[in-house]
## 1
Amino acid sequence: MRADQIIIEPILSEKTNIAREGNEKKYTFKVRMDSNKFQISNAVKELFGVEVVACNVMIMKGKPKFSRGKGGSILGNTGNWKKAVVTLAKGETIQAIEGV
C-alpha cells in the first residue's frame, strides 16, 4: 500500500490544535481501517519528511444518524473509522498542516 493511500486526511479541531501546539508535537490523522502503526508511521515519515517517535491508533465508533423522508423515518449509523495520533521528535513540525 502506498503512503498516500494510508493517510486519508488530517483532523483539525480545537482538541487536536492544542495537542499540536504543546511541548510534544502530536498530529492526528484519519487513516485506512486496514493499516497498522508501522505503516502509518512510515507513511508520515515518507509524505512529510519528519521523524516519528510514537504512533497511537484507535478505532472510532460510528455515530447514529436519523433521517426523515416521504417513506417515514430512517435510522442508521455512520461508518466506523480509524484515528492515528502521531508524536514527532522534538523540533519537528509538519509544514503542510501548520500553514507556515
Note: Residues 3-98 form a domain with the Alpha-Beta Plaits fold (CATH 3.30.70.330).
## 2
Amino acid sequence: MAMKQTRRGFALLIAVIFMSVMLAFGLALGSLAYKQQVLASTAIQSQYAFYAADAGLECALYADQQQGLFAYTSDMSAPAPSLVCDGASAISASVLSHTGSQWVIFNRLSLDTNKRCVDVTVYKRKNTGTNYLFSQGYDVSCATVAAPNGAHFVSRGLSADY
C-alpha cells in the first residue's frame, strides 16, 4: 500500500510540466510574431518616406534643369522660388542664405493629398556649374512634421550633385 501513495499525483505533475512547456512555446511564438509585425510596419513607413524624398528630388531637378526655376541671381533681396510638384505649390519657400557665390533655397511640399511631406533644399552656386540638392521625405503630413507633439515618424533623405 505504501507504493501506491508515492505514485499519487504523478500524472498531474506531468500535465503541469507539459502545459508549462506549451505556454513558453506559445509566448515565444507570439513575441516573434509581434516583432515581425513591427518590423514590417517600419519597412512600409520607411518606403513611404523614401518615395516622398525621391518625388521631391525629381521635382526639384526638373524645375531647375527644364524650367530654370532656381537660376542663381545676384539680387540679394530676390524672393525664394516656389516649387510646384504634383500640381501642388510649396507650402513654404524661403531663402536660407544668399551670398555672392551661393544661393540656398528651401521648399516644403505636401504630397499624396496631404498624407506625405518633403523638404527640398537647393544649393545654387554661381559660375561653378555644380549644384547640390537635398530632399528629405517624411511618412506623415507636413502638419505633423511642423508640430510633432510627440508623434513618431520616419524620414529618409536623398541628394544629388549635378
Note: The two ends are 95 Å apart (CA to CA).
## 3
Amino acid sequence: MRRDAELYSLILLLGVLAVAPLFSTQYTVRLLTVGLLYGLAAVGFNLLYGYTGLLSFGHAMFWSAGAYGLSIGLVRLGLDPLQSIGLAFLLTLVVALATGYLSLRHTEIYFAMLTLAFAQLIYALIIKLRDITGGDEGIYGIPRPMGLGEYYYLVLAIVALLVLLAWWIVRTPLGLGFQAVRDNSSRAASVGLDVSRVRLVSYVISALYLSVAGMLYAPLNRAITPDIAFWTFSAIIVIMTIIGGVRRVAGAFIGGLIFIFININAMRFTEFWQLILGVILAILVYLAPEGVSGIVEKVVRRVKG
C-alpha cells in the first residue's frame, strides 16, 4: 500500500468513526470505543511484530500496566488524573525496560516464550497483591470524567493522534531501522545499527501504545479484573493484528475494529464463538495472509488495472 494511500485510508476511516455515533445506539458507541482501543493496541503491537519482526505473546502485561497503574492511582491512592497517568506510564516503563532487557537477548520462539512467561508473572502478581490490585476481584468504582458520548470522542482524538504518529514513525529513520532489523539483523548491524537498542526502543514504544489503550479502557469499563493480564488477551492482540494485516498501520487498526464486531456477533449466536473466530482466522491466513488490508489493496489494484 503506497504511503499516501494508507494515510488517506486512515483519515477516511477516522472521519467515518467521527460521525458514526450520530447514527448509533449507546451500545454501539460503547462497542466502537472498545474497537478503537483494540485498534490502538494492534497498532502498537504491530510496531514490534510487523515492523521489527518480533512476535510477543505477552503484550497483555502492558495493557494491564496502564489500566492498573491508572486505577490504583485514582481509586487506591486518591491521586488526581494527571498523577495517576504519570504512575501508569512509570509502571509501564519499568515493566517494559525490565522484561525487554531480559527477553531481547533472544529472538524468534525464545523471545515469544519469554514474553509469555513474564506476562504470566505479572498476572500472578496482580492476583497475589490483593491489597493493591484487588486480587481476582479487581478494582471497581473507577471514575469516568464524562458521559459515554463525550468519552468516545476523547478516545477517538487520542487514538487518531497515536495511529497517525505510528504511520509517521515507521517512515522516519527510526522506523526504517526497525524494518532493517526485521529484514536482516546481521546486515543492519554491519551498516552501523545497534540492533539490540533498536529492538528495545521498538519494544518500549509498543508497550506505551498498549499502556495508553489500557488507561483509556479502565474509565470506560469503570472496573478492571485480572483477565486483562492473562495470556489469552495477548493472543487476542496477535489475532487482531493478523486479521487486519501486519506491516501496515492501517491494517492493524482495522483489525482491532473488525475483531470486536466479529467477537460480539459470534457470542450473540453461539457459545462456541471461539470456534467461529478460529475458523475466520484460519480462512484469512490461508486465503489472505496479508489480512483484510491486503485484500483491499489487491481489489484496488485490479480496479485500477
Note: The two ends are 15 Å apart (CA to CA).
## 4
Amino acid sequence: MNKFFYAAVVLLLALSSCQSSKVKIAGRFVGTEAKTVYLEQSTVLEQNLIDSVTLNDEGSFSFLLESVDAKSPTLYHLVYDGNRIPLLLQGGDKVSVNSAGNALRNYTVEGSEESELLHAFNHEYVEGAVELNKIMSQLTANDLSDDQRHSLAVEYTQKKNAIKRAQLRFIVENKDRIAAVYALYQRLPGDTNLFNGDSDVIYYRTVAEALAESYPESHYLPLLRSQIARMDAQISLLSQVSESSFPEISMPDMYGKVQNLSDLEGKVILLHFWSAAIGNSNAFNADLKNIYEKYHDQGLEIYQVAVDTSKALWVNTIQQQQLPWISVCDFQGSNSPAVGAYNITALPSNFLIDRTGNIAGKDLGGEDLEKAIKKHI
C-alpha cells in the first residue's frame, strides 16, 4: 500500500511539473479587419514565428504553449494587424490579452505579472513616441514661422526628456524584473544610447545585479553581462585616448605581434573594419589594394580590424588575398572593445584619420574615398 501511495505521489508531481511548463494565451481583438494573430518568440539574436491562429467570428483567439521555462520569463510577441504586443511568459501562466482598435496602443493584459509590468511601461512609452511623431510632423511643415518652429522644437525636446526620465524611473523601480531588461533596450527614434552614453552602464549593472538575485537562471543575464563588459571596455578605451581624437586600438596581427593604431600617427590612416566571414570580402579588399598601391608610398597606411572569432578563417583569408597592410584581430567578434569604441553597426566600415590625428571621414568608398585620401596625403 505504501509503495502504491508513493508511486501515486510521484505521478502527481510529474503531472504537476508538466503542467507548470504550459502557458495559455487567450483573448479578443476587435475593431480592425485583420483576421490572423501570430505568436513570435524573441531570442537574444532573432524573432521566430512559432504559431498562428485565425480569429473566430467574435474576434477571439487562443494559443497553448507546451514547454515554457518555469523559472524565468521569456519574451514573446503577439503580432496582429501590424502591431507587436510584448509578453513576458513563464510556465504556468494563463494570460488574457484583449484590445479594441489599435492593438498596441489599446491592449490590456492579465494573468502574467511580468507582462502586466511590461504593459505599464509600454503604454506610456508608445503613447510618448506617438506624441513625438505628431510634433515632428508639425515641425516639417513648410509654412511655419521661426517662432512656431522654435516653440515646437522646445516642446519636442521637453517631451523626449520626459519619456526618457519615465523610462529610467521604470528601470530603477523594477530592476529585479525581466521587464526592466526589455525597457533597457528600447530606443526613441534617432537615439543609440539609453540616456547619456558612458553613464548608461550604471543602469545595465543595476539590473544585472538585481536579476542575479531574483532570476539567477535567466538567459538574459549573460546578455546583460556581455553588454556591461563591452561598455566597460569602451569606457576604458576612450579613457586612453591621447591628444589625437581617435580611440587607441592595440591588437595582435597574424604572427601574434601587437600592433598599436597610435604608432601610425603622422600618416594618413584608413582604419577599416571587416570580417573574413563575409562573402564579399575579396571584392572590397581588392579595391583597397588598388588604393594602397597608389598612395602607400605617399604616406597612406591601412590598419584593418577583423571582426571575427575564427583565427584559422582569418589567417587563411589574409594569406589567400595577400593583404599587404596591417591586419589585426582579437577574436571577440562583435564583442570586441574596438567595435564598441568606434560604434560599429555594419561591416565593412571605415574611418579616415588625417596626419594630425583627426577623423576626416567615415564609411567612404569608391571615388569619395580616393578624393579624401588625396586631399590629406
Note: The chain has three domains: 22-110, 125-239, 250-376.
